[in-house]
Amino acid sequence: MGLPPGLGPRAGGHRRRRVHPVHLRAPGGLPRGEDPRHRGGGPRLPRAQRGRVRAPGRAGEGRAGRGAPAGQAGPPGLSVRVLLAPDRLSGALTAVAAARALARGWAEGAPDVDLAEAPMSDGAAGLLDVVAAARGGTLVPATVPGPLGEPVPAAVLHVPGAGGGTAYVEADQVLGRHLVAEPDRRAAATAGTSAGLGELLAAAVRTGAGRVVV
């Protein structure tokens, strides 16, 4: 009994299999002769139709912004609210000033957006500004000793409320590195004092606040 044509032995003992043209299919499932992407023959699409079809929109534009008119942050009819919550930029802007600058930029670029400013603080410099912007209150000035005993102007923020309200103390006002010159910082590490912070706490208690936050 003989083997079917195309499956007979050849030199080296290997058998060669004849493959019908219908088995030669391109990735899309069409035979090669019918696939317009195949360069070996068959009908081909015009060059203008071979490129990738893109959704309408400007180059580099994200999905959320496709088709949105200039100055509009999202699709028509969609209300967008942006929360601006920066911390301070050391040596440049306070947190409050940074939030206002961001708000001005957003208002110019997207006037239909609802903006909310919420400047933040990690508890260091700028704490009183952030709390005052959010809750109001009264700044109570005080002059206390700095790290090396020199008089330093400071303040306590008193926010009225139940039980006498809350007094906020910003320790950086009297203990911050900015109060000591670079050559004196090594000496301040051993000879410095935190008495100024204690006096600020006493000033906070004198406001009548039932709660003190440092």
UniProtKB/TrEMBL annotation:
Record InterPro entries: Glyc_kinase_flavodox-like_fold, Glycerate_kinase, Glycerate_kinase_sf
Pfam families membership: Gly_kinase
Compositional bias of kind Basic residues: 12-23
Transmembrane segments: none
One GO term of the biological process aspect: organic acid phosphorylation
Annotated Low complexity bias: 66-76
Residue segments, region Disordered: 1-76
A Gene Ontology molecular function term of the record: glycerate kinase activity
Protein name as annotated: Glycerate kinase
